[in-house]
């Protein structure tokens, strides 16, 4: 179990945080509505059967949002801001795939004036077969205490 509310001064380079989830039809339907992305890639099974993917695939924005959710859970109440974030998709994610999402702390840059620091993370998403389906990078400003303390 990952403890929530990790503070900057509690982190070490090499720390890892991970979660997994099985992508369902409900995820795809909700993502299409939320992101206003009704592209056939995600919503049209008959057309996708004739495509290079052979079936519908998960929204990239959904994959990235799920990755952000992993570090948001870890830095609950200590994450001041996501400063930078990116993702590279390397393989499709299909409905009923179970993905393993993992972040690793790569660099810690203390910012004493802010009572915290910048946390550089590197992430990877793998499907149930161990295939890397996405790689990610993020930089967060994380406090040494809950952001609600004065």
Net shape? elongated
For the record, what is the CATH homologous superfamily label?
Answer: Hotdog Thioesterase
Instruction: Give the strand order, joined by hyphens, for the main sheet.
Output: 1-3-4-5-2
Q: What's the number of domains?
A: 1
Which segments are poorly predicted (pLDDT under 50) over 5 or more consecutive residues? Answer: none
How is the biggest beta sheet arranged? 5 strands, antiparallel
Task: Examine the coordinates and then state which fold CATH places here, giving the name of the CATH topology.
Answer: Thiol Ester Dehydrase, Chain A
Mean pLDDT: 93
- Helicity level: 10-25%
Please state the CA-atom Rg, rounded to the nearest Å.
17 Å
Please tally the helical runs, counting DSSP H or I stretches of 4 or more residues: 4
CATH architecture name: Roll
Distance between the termini: 28 Å
What proportion strand? Answer: 35-45%
Q: Give the structural class.
A: alpha+beta
Structural commentary:
The chain is 23% helix and 37% strand. It has 150 residues and is an alpha+beta fold. It has a single domain (8-143), classed as Roll (Thiol Ester Dehydrase, Chain A), CATH 3.10.129.10. A five-stranded antiparallel β-sheet has the order 1-3-4-5-2, covered by helices on one side. It is elongated, with a radius of gyration of 17 Å.
């Amino acid at each position: 179990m990952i403890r929530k509310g990790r503070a900057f001064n509690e982190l070490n380079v090499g720390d890892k945080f991970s979660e997994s989830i099985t992508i369902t039809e409900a995820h795809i339907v909700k993502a299409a509505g939320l992101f206003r992305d009704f592209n056939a890639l995600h919503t049209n099974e008959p057309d996708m059967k004739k495509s290079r993917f052979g079936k519908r695939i998960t929204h990239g924005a959904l994959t990235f949002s799920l990755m952000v959710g992993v570090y948001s859970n870890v830095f609950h109440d200590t994450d001041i801001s996501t400063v930078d974030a990116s993702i590279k998709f390397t393989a499709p994610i299909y409905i009923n795939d179970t993905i393993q999402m993992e972040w690793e702390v790569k660099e810690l840059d203390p910012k004493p004036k802010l009572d915290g620091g910048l946390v550089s993370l590197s992430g990877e998403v793998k499907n149930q077969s161990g295939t890397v389906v996405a790689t990610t990078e993020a930089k967060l400003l994380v406090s040494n205490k809950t952001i609600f303390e004065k």
